[in-house]
Design brief:
The protein is an alpha/beta fold. Helices cover 40% and strands 22% of the residues. Helix 3 (87-97) crosses helix 4 (118-128) and helix 7 (222-232) packs parallel to helix 8.
């Protein structure tokens, strides 16, 4: 990694995400870029000084947080950025401009700051950003070390594309990988595709000398199966692809990625097949 962006709206969830980002940055020797987005779409002429005061206050608060947290960031440096526009678009553009490897967003929680926006934008950020995104709940215990990474494998064509990302994380944290191959149908041809994806994943991890455990499971509710399995093995992180919905349209609960993020109390790393960690 080079840069980790933290979406900052001064909510409890955002502050929690920053602490989690520091944990990752120290392990991966990365810088942290806190980004606050002025999401107010009101024309400048109609709000005048009031809007300028909000931006000034946001800058002051960013600087305060940076001074408070910089000492705990030993793997890199803390940087600040203010942008204006739609939150999910601006974060994605900033990630591209700063060649960032990861965005971290907090979910849920309340903020006393007028402009808090993470809760309503978290999934849009995950969907829009080209780089991987970690979403973390405000009540997750970030002191818990990353020792177990849960990786679902299914019949989608990109299911194995997250494995290089997972391998790098596992090496950084000396974590074990738990591969969960899931059959969502009884069709032999699709089961063979799952088996092939599992075998490819195992082959890559073995080549990289990353410890892993592989298991299979039949399910008609993929998101619930993943979350339940992660709880069973005391997982610390779940890694998913953001495009798996195409291959799993039979899931009644709706959008795969959004459902698993909503169900899980663990941090979720969402990866797009064409964009892996630098």
């Amino acid at each position: 990694m080079k840069n980790i962006i933290v979406a900052m709206d001064f909510s409890k969830g955002a502050n929690h995400a920053l602490d989690y980002a520091i944990k990752l940055a120290n392990k991966t020797l990365s810088d942290i870029l806190m980004v606050w987005v002025d999401a107010d779409q009101t024309k400048e002429s109609t709000i005048g000084l009031c809007k300028n005061e909000i931006r000034r206050d946001a800058k002051i608060e960013l600087q305060r947080i940076s001074e408070e947290k910089s000492a705990s960031l030993t793997g890199g440096i803390m940087k600040l950025k203010q942008r204006k526009g739609k939150v999910y678009q601006e974060l994605a553009l900033q990630a591209k401009a700063s060649n960032s490897s990861l965005i971290i967003v907090g979910t849920h929680g309340l903020s006393g700051f007028e402009e808090f926006w993470i809760g309503s934008n978290a999934y849009k950020i995950i969907s829009y950003a080209a780089c991987p995104v970690i979403s973390i709940r405000f009540d997750y215990d970030i002191e818990k070390p990353i020792r177990t990474i849960v990786v679902p494998i299914d019949n989608s064509p990109h299911s194995t594309k997250k494995i290089p990302t997972v391998a790098k994380l596992a090496k950084a944290f000396q974590a074990d990988i738990y591969l969960l191959a899931m059959y969502t149908t009884n069709l032999a041809s699709l089961k063979k595709t799952v088996d092939r994806n599992l075998m490819e994943s195992e082959k890559y991890l073995a080549k990289e000398n990353v410890p892993y455990i592989a298991q299979t499971q039949q399910t008609n509710n993929l998101p619930l199966a993943v979350v339940s399995y992660a709880k069973k093995v005391d997982g610390d992180l779940i890694v998913i692809m953001t495009d798996q919905d195409i291959a799993n349209r039979n899931i009644v609960m709706g959008d795969y990625s959004q459902t698993i993020i909503n169900l899980s109390h663990l941090p979720i790393l969402s990866v797009k097949p064409e964009n892996l960690f630098h």
